[in-house]
Amino acid sequence: MPIRDQKGKSTAWIPLVMTLVLAIGFMTGLKTAKQSDGRLLSISPNKSNASFKVDEVLGFISQRYVDSVDVDAIAEVAIRMIVDSLDPHSHYLDAASVAEYESKMEGRYVGIGIEFRMLRDTLVITDVLPESPAAKADIFRGDKIILVDNDTISGVQMQADRIYQLMKGEKGSIVNVSLLRCKDFISSIPITRGTVHTKSVPTAVTIDDETIAVSIEQFNSNTSREFLDLLEPYHEAGQLKNLVLDLRGNPGGYLQEAVKILNQFFNKKGELLVFTEGLNSKRIEYKTKGKPYLKIEELFVLIDENSASASEIIAGAIQDLDRGAVIGRRSFGKGLVQEQYELSHGGNLRLTIAKYYTPSGRLIQRELGSRMDYDGEFLARAHSGEWTAAADIPRPDSTVYFSSEGDALYGSRGIVPDVFVSIDTQLMADNAYEMFVLKEELGLDLFHSISCSENSFEEIERQLLGLDWRNWIRSFTSFDNFGRLQSVPAHYSTIFSRDIVGIIHRYMDGKSAKYAFDLMSDPFIAEVKNSLVTSPTTQKQLTKVD
Predict the structure, then answer these.
(1) 196 DSSP β-pair partners
(2) In this predicted structure, which of 25-29, 250-254, 294-298, 313-317 has the lowest mean pLDDT?
(3) Which of 25-29, 188-192, 448-452, 475-479 bottoms out in mean pLDDT, i.e. has the lowest?
(4) Fewest CB atoms less than 10 Å from the CB: which of 177, 445, 450, 458?
(5) CB–CB of 309/301 below 8 Å?
(6) pTM score of the predicted model
């Protein structure tokens, strides 16, 4: 039974818009006895009182515990608990996690280069990265992997993390996959694992003759270079007058990369973009260099509740300095700076050392409070109604800050947009997850009807965008899926069928093609177009949240 809040709203949709961080606690009980010699261990007390306490406890466990125990493992758990008690963004990483994190932030990893989704308990490849080992082995989107080496992974309800483990391995090692393509079973395709390169700035889309939208998925060490490389052809062709910077769902990353991108939007040298400061960290200011390569006139920044950290640095600076319009919903609210420290045993400490502030002095970090309250704030936001009504966005900090042109701004709990866009209300329905899965399954069925049966994509797209698409789709899917279609609400029918078309685009031409198709009916882009009718400044004043 779906869980409902006190207002009767269902919360079954929550997995689609958030990931809860579960804190796992543990307690160890020890029983000690007084010994005649007065000392059980030889531990020097000439350390700080805190470190002596930890060493003493571990020493007792190592030398007196009833069973054999891995003291190093216990120490790892203790370190994690100590660091996790500080704030939600400070973390201890073991050596393996350090390597994985660094690879991610460098835009590379060792593997075969596929993305997948489990549909009908079968692993379906949704994307194959360019130049990856999987691409070189002629693996394609829409293939269904049945075996990895000798392990059956489809039809056995295998967990995704277990599948990832089977795919992973040393660079140069070989993994054999057996797959189903259309109706053909292809046995034991060898794939040599290698370095896979990922893009943090995957695509740019033309909105009109003068406006380009570019999506940034995270801020890794290559982001600013990828950003300029992707936009350079439009710049050289004179097509880049206006820019839409899509930071929806962007969790952040390197602050320096965000600052480099911000520098492309300001001609004046020496303007403050962001500053950081902490109890044991002096104030550090990041300012404009006054030498942008790009010549952007109108700028729009798209954010939502999953835009965090470096994304908020960009949105905050653009808003404070009145450089453009921020469109969307209140951002995540993460204004803490982490620094990484290598530990002697190979681990890594990501420690919060400072807070960052927008040019006007706003702190974007939301209240930490208890870990449970912090992790549960998305649920609180949904209950508050702020995802569907701008008037319900809270302002816990009453301090008023001002933009360079005198607009009133408020700090704490993220960036409040200039132009509000409501969330898709279907995401808040009881059957939101079921609708998501059904769209994916129907999209796969229709893609296979094109790739395996040579049906026309143009005709399928035309029919899906027509009024009678439900009845038309009967011959392309299972009886069960057709029955499930009857649960699609009438008011959601047009959006549902368009989403299926987008999924087919993804299978045929990759995620960039889906992104380009989705933008054509995107309410965020509709607000951009409305703003361009006059000027972003005028539109900002008309729609600003009071």
Answers:
(1) 109
(2) 25-29
(3) 25-29
(4) 458
(5) no
(6) 0.86
Q: Are 381 and 387 in contact (CB under 8 A)?
A: yes
Is the model's pLDDT at 97 over the cut of 90?
Answer: no
Looking at residue 48, its pLDDT comes to: 59
**66 or 10, which is more confident:** 66
Per-residue pLDDT tens digits for 366-403:
888 777 888 888 888 888 899 999 989 988 777 899 99
Q: Which of 333, 496, 520 is nearest to 426 (CA)?
A: 496
Residue 148 is which amino acid? V
Distance of CA 434 to the CA centre of its chain: 22
Name the phi and psi angles at 433, rounded to 5.
-65, -40
In 3D space, the residue among 313, 335, 314 whose CA is nearest the CA of residue 244 turns out to be 314
- Phi, psi dihedral angles at 126 (to 5 degrees): -95, -20
Residue by residue, DSSP assigns 103-128 as: HHHHTEEEE--EEEEEETTEEEEEEE
At residue 545, φ and ψ (nearest 5 deg) are -70, 120
Q: pLDDT tens digit string along 164-178?
A: 888 889 999 999 999
CA torsion, ordered 370, 373, 375, 377, to nearest 10 deg: -150
> What backbone torsions phi and psi does residue 207 show, to the nearest 5 degrees?
-90, -45
Distances (CA, A) of 389 to 49, 232, 304, 385, 405: 53, 38, 14, 6, 26
d(CA 69, CA 67): 6
Least confident of 428-437, 458-467, 491-500: 428-437
Helix H or strand E encompassing 52? helix 49-64
Q: How many CB atoms lie within 10 A of CB 331?
A: 28
Alpha-carbon distances of 111 from 127, 292, 528, rounded to whole Å: 14, 37, 39
Q: How far is CA 97 from CA 79, 94, 102, 103, 218, in A?
A: 15, 5, 8, 10, 19
Give me the pLDDT at residue 170, please. 93
**The tokens of 70 are what?**
């891995």
Closest CA to 407 of 267, 545, 242, 244: 545
CA dihedral 247→253→254→255, nearest 10 degrees, is 60
- The pLDDT value given to residue 14: 43
Predicted confidence (pLDDT) per residue in 344-356, tens digit:
877 889 999 999 9
- Alpha-carbon distance of 503 to 294, in angstroms, equals 33
Q: Calculate the average pLDDT of the chain.
A: 86
Q: How many whole angstroms from its chain centre is CA 80?
A: 24
| Angle value at C-alpha 499, between 494 and 505, nearest 5 degrees | 130
C-beta of residue 439 within 8 angstroms of C-beta of residue 503:
yes
Which strand (E) or helix (H) includes residue 439? helix 432-451
CA distance 122 to 119: 5
- Round to the nearest angstrom and report the end-to-end CA distance of the chain: 39
Distance CA 287, CA 317 (A): 11
Q: How far apart are CA 67 and CA 61, in angstroms?
A: 9
The reported pLDDT for the residue numbered 508 is: 97
